[in-house]
Amino acid sequence: MSFALVGTVAALALLDSLNPATIGLVALILLLPVTPSGAGRSTSPVVLGLCVAAGAAATVFAVGLAVYLAADAAAVAGGLIWVRRLAFGAAAVALLVTGLRRLRARRVAAISLPTWFSVWTAAPTGVVVTGADLPNAFPYFIAIERMAAAGVGLSWAIVLLIGYAVVYCLPCLILLLVGQLWGQEVRDRLAGIYRRFGAAREVPRSVGLALTYGVGAVALTALAASV
User: 0.85 exceeded by the pTM?
Assistant: First the structure.
């Protein structure tokens, strides 16, 4: 295994870590007051965020290992190319649907955590949110393809996937650390972002944005056909 491969996987993991789904969930948790977890006890939002990050890391590792093991050793690149084509295609459909929705004005409900969210469900929620986001994680599948093409072997593949999972969760961990050190200031800043993007609001019709999403969908469809 070369340093170039490690650097490539690390760079792809850093790119993949900037996903809005898991980071947004952790940010939403930090905005909440302390959550009851039992008689006379409470769970810190930081603990809940760590549980979410643990679920996300476990998902990234487990799915990556499954993809790596499932691929045939002699044709792994070809097999993963089809996975990437499906990922690009799914992203194209998502952009197209988003673009069509921007052709009409609509009211968006406030983003909030469900009433059943607790220390017991935080990790499973991290698993679900991250798993739902993985089909669009292009760097993730490219990294596994590079590992398989390099023939690193199962032991090194496990090490690289563990490292990838840790790097994937770095923004969440940094956000939790900052939230722990500068709690109220961080919550004030997150509250401003939440009011802009997470609170209930009226979304106006936008033909320009609809066309932009449409162009993106066409570009992703072309990529799906060419990879």
Answer: no
Side-chain half-sphere exposure of 71, counting CA atoms within 13 A = 27
**Going by DSSP bridges, is the β-strand pair 201-203/41-43 parallel, antiparallel, or unpaired?**
unpaired
CA distance 34 to 215: 44
Domain range for residue 26? 3-226
Three-state SS at 18: coil
SS3 category, 60: helix
Q: What H or E segment, with its residue span, contains residue 162? A: helix 154-168
Burial track 145-172 (b if 16+ CB lie within 10 A, e otherwise)? bbbbebebeeeebeebbeebbbbbbebb
Largest CA distance in the chain: 59
Rounded Cα gap, residues 185 and 30, in angstroms? 11
Contact 52, 122 (CB under 8 A): yes
pLDDT digits (tens, 9 = 90+) for 30-51: 886 544 444 444 578 888 999 9
pLDDT digits (tens, 9 = 90+) for 46-96: 889 999 999 999 999 999 898 888 765 544 555 667 766 776 777 788 788
DSSP character for 135? G
User: Per the structure, how many domains does the chain have?
Assistant: 1
Q: Output phi, psi for 113, to 5 deg.
A: -85, 145
